[in-house]
Design goal:
There is one protein chain. The chain has about 350 residues and is an alpha/beta fold. It has two domains: about 140 residues, no CATH class; about 180 residues, 3-Layer(aba) Sandwich (Rossmann fold), CATH 3.40.50.410. It has eight helices and 15 strands. The strands form three sheets. The protein has a six-stranded mixed sheet, sandwiched between helices. Strands 1, 2, 5, 12 and 14 form a five-stranded antiparallel sheet that branches. The radius of gyration is 19 Å and the shape is globular.
Length: about 350
C-alpha cells in the first residue's frame, strides 16, 4: 500500500451556510460547560476523568501491557470504525493508526479490538403517522433482526417516538423481551424527534455511569428526519451528543414532503460528529440489509485512547482526527470532544 494515508471519514456535514455555526461550537462550549450537571442524566464526555480499568493498553511501538490507569488519568477514548475501500471491516493494530488532537499527534495508550468491548444498543424507532402503509412493520422486522445478531452479553433498549418518546424496554440483557417490545407499535401522531434523541442519549449516559464506562454505547435511530413536535432546538441535541460517549447511527427514510431530498444536514451531522454513520434508505425494503450491516459494523469497532498533550481544562472544543499510517483504510470516528472545564 506504500505510505499513502487513508481517507478519513471524520467528514463534515453538508449544511446550509447559515447553519454552520453549530458545527464549530467555540462559544457554545464556554456557555454550556456545565450542561452535564444542568441536564438530568448527562454524564462525562469521551474525555474520561475517572478510574478506568483497561484490559489492553498499547503504546504504538510497545508490547501489550496488562495495567489499569490510575484514578486521575485524563484519557480521551475513541471508538474507531476501520473498513477497506469496499466497506468490509478491516483488521488494524495500534501501530497502524495515528491520532491528532487539534492537529498535534498523540501517543496511543489504549487499544482494544472491537469484540472485547460489550455493547449497549438503543433501538430508537419513529412510530409517527408517517410510518404507515406497512413501513413501521418493516422497520420492526429489521430492528428485531439486529437484536438477533448482537452478542448475548449486549444490553438492549427499545424506544419509540411520535408526539413523545416512550421507553418500551429499558436497557437490559433479555433480548427476547426487547424483541417483543418492538412488536407492540402502531403508527400515530406527530414526530418529537429531538426529544427522543435527548432521552436516548441520557439513558445511555446514565448506563455508562452505572457500569463505569465498560460498554460501547450506541443509538440506532430510524426516522424520516423531520421534527414536527416538541420544544427542543437541534443545537441542544447536537451539543449533548457531542458531550456524550454515544455513537449515533441514523437511518433516514425519504420524507413524504420531499422524497428525493435525501437526509437532512442535521441528521448527517448528528451521526458524523458522534462517530456513527448516516444511512439513507430508498424505501422500507432497504431496512433489513441496512440494519444487518449496522449490526456487523458495531461488532468490529476499535477502542483507542490517549492522554492529550498539551493537557487543557478550559471547556473548549478539540478537533480529533484518526489516520492510517500506511494501510489503505477508511476510518471513521467522532469529530472531537469538549475538554473538561475547571
Amino acid at each position: 500500500m506504500g505510505s499513502r494515508a487513508a481517507d478519513v471519514k471524520n467528514c463534515q456535514a453538508d449544511e446550509p451556510a447559515a447553519d454552520k455555526s453549530s458545527r464549530a461550537p467555540t462559544n457554545l462550549g464556554a456557555r454550556r460547560h456545565a450542561i452535564g450537571t444542568q441536564c438530568n442524566g448527562m454524564s462525562r464526555p469521551p474525555f474520561l476523568l475517572c478510574a478506568v480499568l483497561l484490559s489492553s493498553i498499547v503504546a504504538p511501538a510497545a508490547a501489550t501491557l496488562q495495567l489499569p490507569f490510575a484514578s486521575h488519568v485524563d484519557l480521551v477514548a475513541l471508538d474507531v470504525c476501520a473498513t477497506d475501500r469496499n466497506g468490509a471491516p478491516a483488521a488494524v493494530a495500534s501501530g497502524d493508526l495515528a491520532v491528532f488532537d487539534n492537529g498535534i499527534r498523540q501517543q496511543i495508550v489504549l487499544f482494544s479490538e472491537g469484540d472485547r468491548v460489550p455493547l449497549a444498543v438503543t433501538l430508537l424507532v419513529d412510530s409517527s403517522q408517517s410510518m404507515h402503509h406497512g413501513l413501521l412493520g418493516r422497520a420492526v422486522s429489521a430492528a428485531t433482526a439486529l437484536i438477533d445478531q448482537l452478542p448475548a452479553d449486549s444490553l438492549v433498549e427499545v424506544m419509540s417516538f411520535n408526539q413523545r418518546p416512550e421507553v418500551r424496554y429499558p436497557l437490559g440483557v433479555d433480548h427476547a423481551r426487547a424483541g417483543l417490545a418492538l412488536a407492540d407499535m402502531a403508527p400515530a401522531g406527530a414526530t418529537a424527534l429531538y426529544e427522543a434523541v435527548i432521552v436516548a442519549i441520557r439513558n445511555q449516559e446514565r448506563a455508562s455511569r452505572d457500569t463505569n464506562g465498560r460498554y460501547r454505547h450506541i443509538i440506532v435511530l430510524l426516522t424520516d428526519g423531520e421534527n414536527t413536535a416538541g420544544w427542543l432546538p437541534f443545537d441542544q441535541v447536537l451539543d449533548e451528543a457531542r458531550r456524550s460517549n454515544v455513537l449515533v447511527y441514523t437511518v433516514v427514510l425519504p420524507s413524504h414532503d420531499a422524497p428525493d431530498a435525501g437526509p437532512s444536514w442535521r441528521m448527517t451531522q448528528l451521526a458524523v460528529d458522534t462517530g456513527g454513520e448516516i444511512v439513507s434508505a430508498r424505501s422500507g425494503d432497504d431496512l433489513m440489509s441496512i440494519y444487518q450491516r449496522i449490526a456487523a459494523n458495531v461488532r468490529h469497532l476499535y477502542r483507542i485512547g490517549y492522554v492529550p498533550t498539551p493537557l487543557t481544562r478550559d471547556g473548549a472544543w478539540h478537533q480529533v482526527q484518526v489516520r492510517a499510517v500506511e494501510n489503505d483504510l477508511v476510518l471513521r470516528t467522532r469529530t472531537g470532544y469538549y475538554a473538561p472545564y475547571q
